[in-house]
Amino acid sequence: SAVISQKPSRDICQRGTSLTIQCQVDSQVTMMFWYRQQPGQSLTLIATANQGSEATYESGFVIDKFPISRPNLTFSTLTVSNMSPEDSSIYLCSVTPYTDTQYFGPGTRLTVL
Amino acid sequence: TQLLEQSPQFLSIQEGENLTVYCNSSSVFSSLQWYRQEPGEGPVLLVTVVTGGEVKKLKRLTFQFGDARKDSSLHITAAQPGDTGLYLCAGRGADKLIFGTGTRLQVFP
User: Fold this and answer.
1) A98 or A32: which carries more pLDDT confidence?
2) pLDDT value at position A52?
3) How many other β-carbons are positioned within 10 Å of the β-carbon of residue A93?
4) Are β-strands B44-49 and B32-37 bridged in parallel, bridged antiparallel, or unpaired?
5) pLDDT, tens digit, 9 for 90 and up, residues A74-95
6) How far apart are the CA of A94 and the nearest CA of chain B, in angstroms?
7) Beta-strand (E) ranges in A28-100?
8) For residue B2, is pLDDT > 80?
9) Of B74, B61, B77, B96, the residue nearest B24 (C-alpha)
10) Are B75 and B15 within 8 A, CB to CB?
11) Which residues of A touch B104 (CB under 8 A)?
12) Are the C-beta atoms of residues B36 and B44 closer than 8 Å to each other?
């Protein structure tokens, strides 16, 4: 299995500011994923982050808004830039250490005022 | 675009009742997973089904993968308050997991 921690667990931010979310895994993994879960909804993939290369973004998500870093095989950050109330969501980090087994962090609950 | 529709979207039942959640798509998936998510936590994997027609049981939960590998169902027998949560199906696409629309289950004592 993989144990994933995220920081912060929650935050309340002002419109126009940026927040960086950290994801730490207890083992080395090749692929890390960042998801957004809007209130009461399912998960939407934002991007896939591989170590040593630029993140791959899904349709509707751009690097300027959601820059991602992946400095090593156990850590990644997601920044939510120039926030608006529409960015209020839970942001989840996920990894796939084994084929077809995906583990999720506890999420970061973001509220933008 | 591969989509997974779940029904019902919401379900409120009394303890001891049975229920079935459906996950449907027009696309074929190599495998399908079911997750449960509780408030303040990330989704936790319950089961993976791979073969068309496959049935897996996890205590009071029964999972079935459709013969054509386009749909799946989750049946809970004698639901308990501890079953409360958001149930998500997820299909394995070419290079990523595609999540269903979700079913929020509330079981009252």
Assistant:
1) A32
2) 80
3) 28
4) antiparallel
5) 999 999 999 999 999 999 999 9
6) 9
7) 31-37, 44-50, 56-57, 68-72, 75-80, 89-98
8) no
9) B74
10) no
11) 40
12) yes
